[in-house]
Design a protein that fits this description.
- The structure is a single chain.
- The radius of gyration is 16 Å and the shape is globular.
- It has helices at 24-42, 57-66, 78-91, 109-116, 152-162, 173-176, 182-191, 196-203, 206-213; strands at residues 2-7, 49-54, 69-72, 96-100, 122-126, 133-138, 168-169.
- By secondary structure, the chain is an alpha/beta fold.
- It starts with a strand and ends with a helix.
- The chain is built from 9 helices and 7 strands.
- The longest helix is centred in the first third of the chain and has 19 residues, at 24-42.
- Strands 3-2-1-4-6-5-7 form a 7-stranded mixed β-sheet, with helices on both faces.
Length: 214
Amino acid sequence: MRILAIPVKTLAKAKTRLAPVLSPMERAALTLAMLEDVLDAALPISGWETWVVSPDEAVLEVAAQRGARPVPEEKPPLASAIRQVEAEATELDADALAVLLADLPLVTPEVLQAALRTLGTVVLAPSAGDGGTNLLLRRPPRAIGARFGRDSFAKHRASADSHGFPAAIVSSPELTVDLDVPEDIVRVVNDAKAGRTLTSLLELDAVSRVAALV
């Protein structure tokens, strides 16, 4: 068994760094749009079970409707949710566990599938914005510890090296470009494939809102 886990915060706390340009309801809607775009990339990949881990009922409902396995998060923060998934994956004797963040509006099935097929005990895709980690693939699921957030990419690389597992790096923009801060909106609108995220940003006139901040 191979598991692709997508963690999602509660919608009330999602994308708070976009607060200068989007209201709480708009941020919640955008979070769901990005999740659905990521699911569009993940669900077609054969040989992998897609799990969505979240404390939010609306997120879990979307996951179930789309055919992913909804996994209620037992306790925050993200690190605890990942440990929960690791424990379940280990109990199921999974061969591999990939953690993919849910705010990657450029990701495609082709790029994601290529990343999941990359050889190595540890495969990483960095975040172009803050040095975080957008994709962490481990074979087996606990080959190294999981760390997410700012500068976690370097920590993952160092941990892999210290365990004798030189990490394979995937650096395609489809996996490295995330949407965290207002400046990211402009790049996503310019580069995004057609999808729910792009539609949402255009409907919100989000680029104009970003420009008004200057």
